[in-house]
Amino acid sequence: MVNVIIQMSKYVLVILAAAYAMKCFTVFSDKHEMDRGGVYLTQNVLMFLIHFICYLIIYLMTDDIKMIYFYIAQFILFLTTLIVYSTVYKHASRLIVNNMCYLLMVGFVILTRLDYSMAVRQFIIAIAAIVISLAIPIFMAKVRTLDRWGIFYGVLGFLMIASVFVIGESRYGATNWISIGGFSLQPSELAKIVFVFFVAAMLANDVSFKRIVITTAAAAAYVLALVAERDLGAAVIFFVTYLIMLYVATRQFRYMALGLASGAAAGVIAYRLFDHVRTRVIAWQDPWGNYNDAGYQIAQSLFAIGTGGWFGMGLFQGSPETIPVVVSDFVFSAISEEMGALFSICLILVYFSCLLMFINISLRLVKPFYKLLAIGLSASYGFQLFLCIGGVTKLIPHTGVTMPLISYGGSSVLSTIIIFAVIQGLYLLRQREVYLLEKRRERENQSLSEAEYR
């Protein structure tokens, strides 16, 4: 009977995931946030149904009462998050909040399936991150001098990255972790947010050649520090984020071309200097020819994705544990194997709708600092997603970055939730700008009418 439920659930989950993904793009057809209420409510129903069905299967397969308690705790967290956001921030983007909760739900489901203890730790960190995120939009609305702290951001971000040289730990060939109270943290995950604030503050109102040289030198210091730590995935994200922000600030394509050429040269140098870079390139070129060595991880990933087919094998019906580091770097492969390619495609569409919303917000912002901030965070988020999915599907060499909000990694979850909160704060600032503009027009029209009457 349990096997019948699991097999039936595969198709139900795909249908629900497809409906949720479709609703993510339906909201863009309505001009006003208040007109989208029905769509958001439907999303809420769909996400909670998916969450319930997945944990029902997990409980049936494990027969462990802890799974019910864990599900209830998550349900309370997500319901509270949705209610608090809609109460405290009445004009917030509910699409951003819904998608954040949905991605976290999927992450908890697959992590519970792979390693319950890791899922619990991730849940604790997510609670703390959501609590922090609730204060960020208020902070951004109250503090109007964020664009004046450029040097502070630059120094703070670099010190965060450099901290691993003093108290860092080496994992998977990179020295980019620190441990605090039993929890591991990647400083580069939080530093990338500070880095975006730094670049936005430096280039928002001054794009002179001198300012560009100073900012580029600082950005190069960040990237070189990450290279020294052998955290090349993060180095690439910082590099691409800076190039995009520089181009948006200056509108000069020659800077982009020069940066891309420099990046290509740096890639060749990294290939020659670092053994683990060569190993990943070799694995990318021919994983089957190096199956017993460098290509094992990517080959197992491709096996998992191919085995899952369109609808997946069902939760607990696959063997994702055969993929090394599956809970973090290769979690997309585990989802594809047990929940199917169609579910994974819908997941990518949800991610893409977030990116589309981020870019849409950045285009509507007027203040250069806020516009650059939104663009930088969008670039960082979007390129990280590309590196993660591209790596596990053999589109590009694997870089070891996590899948936002789903992969195991407290620092990754914390930084992504903060990114969502900052974007939410920018959205609310834009809503305030629109409100003040409409009020000013109303006063002008009223003054004009009174003048005509006289």
UniProtKB/TrEMBL annotation:
Locations listed in the record: Membrane
Keyword annotations from UniProtKB, A to Z: Cell shape, Membrane, Transmembrane, Transmembrane helix
Topology term for the membrane: Multi-pass membrane protein
InterPro entries reported in the protein's UniProt record: FtsW/RodA
GO biological process: cell division; regulation of cell shape
Membrane spanning residue stretches: 12-29, 41-61, 68-89, 95-111, 123-143, 149-168, 180-203, 209-227, 232-249, 255-274, 295-319, 339-360, 372-393, 405-429
Domain of life: Bacteria
Signal sequence region: none
Repressor among keywords: no
Any one Gene Ontology molecular-function term assigned to this protein's record: lipid-linked peptidoglycan transporter activity
This protein's GO CC annotations: cell division site; plasma membrane
Protein's UniProt keywords contain Cell membrane: no
The protein's name in its UniProt record: FtsW/RodA/SpoVE family cell cycle protein
